[in-house]
Design goal:
Length: 142
């Protein structure tokens, strides 16, 4: 590539590296909260204005209430025995990334699909920014 190079990593370039352990603690608590099927108080881990960007067909949920009402509650109602398993996590200052899977039994109607009673494994990944112990962004499915 010749000429000027595009700016890279603009969102994370000025991350405060001293916040890495705090970010780790927030993410670990968030995953525990999701595995405990918390809804009412999940705002402890997500800011009210965060964006959740799901995979194809799931759309983007803007804000905590939209995420809760249009993703978290319907998903939890349709999938029992749900557990989130992160296979890897990376932390850098106020940023974290993770990938893994959700395992659950499809026990109710979801997105128009009747319950199958089968155990499902869904890949998940996320990029999260943690500021003031609040996840401002979650990019990816999960």
């Amino acid at each position: 590539m010749s000429g000027l190079r595009p700016k890279q990593a603009e969102l994370s370039i000025n991350t405060d590296m001293s916040k890495t352990e705090e970010t780790r603690s927030v993410i670990e608590g968030m995953v525990d909260g999701l595995n405990d099927h918390r809804i009412a108080d999940i705002g402890e881990f997500f800011s009210h204005g965060f964006s959740w960007m799901g995979n194809t067909g799931c759309g983007t949920k803007k804000g905590l209430k939209e995420f809760q009402n249009n993703w978290q509650k319907p998903f939890q109602a349709a999938f029992s025995e749900k557990v989130c398993i992160d296979e890897a996590r990376l932390y850098m200052g106020e940023w974290a990334a993770a990938f893994g899977r959700q395992e659950a039994v499809h026990s109710g109607t979801f997105m128009g699909v009747e319950a199958t009673g089968k155990k499902n494994t869904n890949p998940i990944h996320g990029f999260l920014e943690s500021r003031k112990w609040q996840n401002n962004r979650q990019l990816g499915n999960g």
